[in-house]
Specification:
The chain has 458 residues and is an alpha+beta fold. It is built from eleven helices and 23 strands. The protein folds into two domains: 194 residues, Immunoglobulin-like (Sandwich), CATH 2.60.40; 171 residues, Neutral Protease, domain 2 (Orthogonal Bundle), CATH 1.10.390.
């Protein structure tokens, strides 16, 4: 089996990392002239990747000139590299990557920046590492931190220090990275990492997420051990979170003070993303499911396991109700919203709101149809099992699972949701723990009249 050895070497300047040298050594590579040899993600959902100051390729006969072209398959823009002659044998690809400054204006976007912070750098592999299409083999990654101050560490989703596995390079792109003067709270393969000390008790938050991971892991029937959380100090006026494989990154800032409950809910939402998903191609087709399950289970799993109270759950449900039913873009279809979601952040939130209420309504209908014997949990776990068997997951798989498990057809409900039609929360949703009533409200930003809902404890 072919092998690839990767070394990441950061170089500092004036106390900050100015560049990272990434060297990939393949023991055997064979690529004809004019065929794509590697690619980089120039941007992901409009967030730019790291700048590549220099890229070179050398095989057993010497250096091979490279040419580049760009393409876009929304939401990703790629830069493709081609060798101008045949490449064969042991091959070294070398890239000098320039970390960027953290955004300092406006609202945060997805955490896809490879950004400097407090003498270190953090970000996702997709922002600064290459992929070699169709290649797989033995992969090893190591850090050369000899140019950084003593005590510096290099960590990624898959482990600290040197890691190795069999597979594709894409696995490295789907991970988060942090290196420099890293602080951490760890327990086995669970870790919580940051570069700048925040104004809250990190140990307490890390302890909550460790307990939360345990109950989510049991619920989603997951036996993999590795899970890591990365924290960034945002310079923008708001913060959020973004999940990748077996990990997520979230931010905090000095302007927006989040309550403990808000922090815990954000972390719960991002953690759920590790499990439920459907094929979202084209983008927006099934975003309702990924974001809806993350919203739903960020409330219901902590509630069922005693990590939050019913009053706290009620607060979170009401917050989502207010946000969705007064959103001026709520009548856009899922695909229409996806096209503008990173230009209009109101449209970006639609999948979250309509997803959680559609899933909660479906749960109520399933429980009524089966006299409480089945609910949305059974559907979500069934889809998860199908995915592990290699089934291509789409909206029809969800609808089929509801029919098979509950004997009901929610296709028309799904069509209304997918098209941006109005639908009311079911009074038996969220476990039947809360009562709901209709109320008049005003749209955010426009002041126009809207129909919303008010929840209360039963």
């Amino acid at each position: 089996m072919s092998a690839c050895r990767i070394t990441l070497t950061p170089f500092p300047e004036a106390g900050e990392v100015s560049r990272v040298e990434a060297v990939y050594v393949f023991d055997a590579l064979s690529v004809p002239a004019g065929q794509e040899i590697f690619r980089l993600q120039r941007s992901t959902v409009s967030v730019p990747g790291a700048e590549i100051a220099r890229a070179s390729l050398r095989d057993e006969t010497g250096e091979a000139p490279l040419s580049f072209r760009e393409s876009e398959a929304y939401p990703i823009r790629y830069r493709h590299a081609y060798a101008q002659r045949d490449v064969s044998g042991q091959t070294e690809i070398r890239c000098d990557v320039l970390p960027c400054e953290r955004l300092s204006q406006g609202r945060h976007g997805p955490y896809f920046q490879f950004a400097r912070e407090n003498g270190g750098v953090s970000g996702p592999g997709l922002a600064f590492l290459i992929d070699v299409p169709d290649w797989q083999g033995d992969v090893s990654l190591r850090w050369d931190l000899s140019h950084l101050p003593a005590g510096s560490r290099g960590v990624c989703t898959w482990g600290e220090g040197e890691i190795s596995y069999q597979g594709t390079l894409e696995r490295l792109l789907e991970a988060y990275y942090i290196f420099g003067p890293v602080h951490s709270v760890t327990e086995g393969d669970f870790g919580f990492y940051w570069l700048s000390e925040p104004p809250f008790d990190v140990a307490e938050l890390a302890g909550f997420t460790r307990r939360l991971f345990g109950v989510m892991q049991r619920f989603f029937r997951d036996d993999q051990k590795a899970y890591r959380i990365f924290m960034r100090h945002d310079l923008t006026e708001s913060s959020g979170g973004t999940a990748l494989a077996r990990s997520y990154m979230f931010g905090w800032n000095d302007r927006q003070k989040m309550t403990v409950l808000e922090q815990q809910n954000l972390l719960a939402h991002e953690m759920v993303h590790n499990w439920p998903h459907l094929n979202d191609n084209p983008y927006g087709t099934t975003t309702w499911y990924a974001e809806g399950t993350a919203e739903y289970y960020s409330i219901m799993i902590p509630l069922k396991n005693g990590l939050i109270t019913k009053e706290q759950a009620l607060q979170q449900i009401q917050k989502r109700t207010d946000g969705y039913y007064t959103n001026p873009t709520r009548h856009l279809s899922n695909l229409e919203a996806a096209k503008i979601c990173w230009q209009d952040r109101r449209a970006q939130r639609l999948a979250y709101g309509r997803g959680i209420f559609f899933l909660a309504n479906t749960d109520a209908k399933l429980r009524r149809a089966t006299a409480g014997k089945a609910g949305i949990d059974d559907v979500v776990l069934d889809i998860l099992a199908q995915g592990k068997r290699g089934v291509t997951l789409g909206n029809e798989v969800f609808l089929d699972a509801v029919r098979r498990i509950g004997g009901i057809d929610v296709t028309e409900d799904w069509r209304v949701m997918h098209a941006g039609g109005h639908f009311a929360p079911d009074g038996d949703s969220f476990g039947g723990l809360f009562a709901v009533s209709e109320e008049k409200a005003q749209e955010a930003d426009t002041g126009r009249e809207a129909i919303s809902y008010r929840w209360s404890l039963r």
